[in-house]
């Protein structure tokens, strides 16, 4: 009876807190038309969606695109408030050129928001399959590029006491052996974001982390995942192929072709809230799988969490042929 009473009280408190938080977070900033935001990785996916949404809200947007095709597409489909620019976050020269463009345009007004969205998925397969060059390529974009962009644009953000929004992933809290380079880079994004939030608070700059789960974007399209796995498999030695077996690859592929991908618009909405809300969250776990499955798994004792993952998410930890035969 006492236990039921305690649970009932906790449920009421949780409900009141949830409603209060929802109400508190509804308030938006005034005069959004006076705000200027830089977004990286706008060729497609979350960045492209966010650039369009902010443009419709009346914000001035600098949309960083890796390709000229991305620049042309946004220039044609958005208003004159949105200025697409070529920007390769893995190139310091490109980042500096983008900084000059933005600085010359905003002058002393500074920059309200920086959204570090640019990212790549990288190779898939067992932990030992990718080369150091594979790891470096992912880190150059997802982590080192993000750090370079942030450090470069911080002086403009200090002028407005603005906001940094860093796109991480549930892969930055829950690492899968099948996408190790990606998870390593996103764990770095989490660490840098936490340090940045604590270090920049005294300057009036807030930092917000976006942690999406599986969403329908180009980097995780089934065909792209299939090609990545096939390319990695073909690079292996015959001994390594025999050790793992083709079933190992097929099991990984199942996790990326189960039809559970969600509409990426809700990720863009979370990013928009982080930029435009009067009281944004420090961390956005986007979609129920991130909030109610992935994150709670990280709270468990390590061995218990690993067991639950093997039980519930077998595609994350497929068993090589040699290990199955050895049982």
Characterization of this structure:
This protein has 327 residues and is α/β, with parallel strands linked by helices. The chain has one domain (30-220, 260-310): NAD(P)-binding Rossmann-like Domain (Rossmann fold), CATH 3.40.50.720. Helix content is 55%, strand content 11%. The chain has helices at 2-24, 45-57, 68-77, 92-106, 132-160, 180-200, 222-234, 238-244, 246-255, 265-276, 288-299, 302-312, 321-325, and strands spanning 36-39, 60-65, 82-86, 113-116, 163-167, 206-212, 283-286. Strands 3-2-1-4-5-6-7 form a seven-stranded parallel β-sheet, with helices on both faces. α6 (180-200) links the parallel β5 (163-167) and β6 (206-212). α2 (45-57) crosses α10, α4 (92-106) runs parallel beside α5 and α5 packs parallel to α6 (180-200). The protein is globular and about 65 Å long. It holds the Pfam family adh_short. GO terms for molecular function: oxidoreductase activity. This is Retinol dehydrogenase 16-like. Belongs to the short-chain dehydrogenases/reductases (SDR) family. Keywords: Oxidoreductase.
């Amino acid at each position: 009876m006492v236990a039921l009473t305690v649970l009932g009280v906790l449920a009421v408190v949780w409900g009141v807190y949830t409603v209060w938080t929802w109400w508190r977070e509804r308030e938006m900033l005034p005069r959004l038309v006076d705000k200027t935001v830089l977004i990286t990785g706008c060729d497609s996916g979350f960045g492209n969606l966010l650039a369009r949404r902010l443009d419709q809200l009346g914000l001035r947007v600098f949309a960083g695109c890796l390709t000229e095709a991305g620049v042309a597409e946004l220039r044609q489909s958005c208003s004159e408030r949105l200025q697409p620019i070529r920007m390769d976050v893995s190139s310091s020269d490109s980042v500096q050129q983008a900084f000059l463009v933005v600085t010359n345009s905003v002058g002393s007004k500074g920059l309200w928001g920086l959204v570090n969205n640019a990212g790549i998925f990288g190779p898939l397969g067992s932990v030992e399959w990718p080369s150091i060059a594979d790891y470096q390529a992912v880190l150059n974009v997802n982590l080192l590029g993000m750090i370079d962009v942030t450090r470069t644009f911080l002086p403009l953000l200090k002028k407005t006491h603005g906001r940094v929004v860093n796109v991480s992933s549930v892969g930055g809290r829950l690492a899968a052996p099948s996408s190790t380079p990606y998870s390593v880079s996103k764990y770095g994004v989490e660490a840098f974001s936490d340090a940045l939030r604590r270090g920049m608070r005294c300057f009036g700059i807030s930092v917000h982390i976006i942690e999406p789960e599986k969403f329908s974007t180009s980097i995780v399209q089934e065909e792209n995942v299939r090609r990545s796995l096939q390319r990695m498999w073909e690079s292996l030695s015959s001994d390594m192929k025999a050790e793992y077996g083709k079933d190992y690859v097929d099991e990984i592929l199942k996790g990326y072709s189960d039809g559970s991908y969600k509409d990426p618009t809700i990720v863009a909405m979370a990013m928009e809230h982080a930029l435009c809300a009067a009281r944004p969250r420090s961390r956005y776990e986007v979609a129920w799988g991130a909030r109610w499955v992935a994150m709670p798994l990280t709270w468990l004792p390590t061995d218990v969490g690993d067991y639950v993952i093997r039980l519930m998410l077998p595609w994350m930890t497929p068993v090589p042929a040699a290990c199955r035969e050895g049982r």
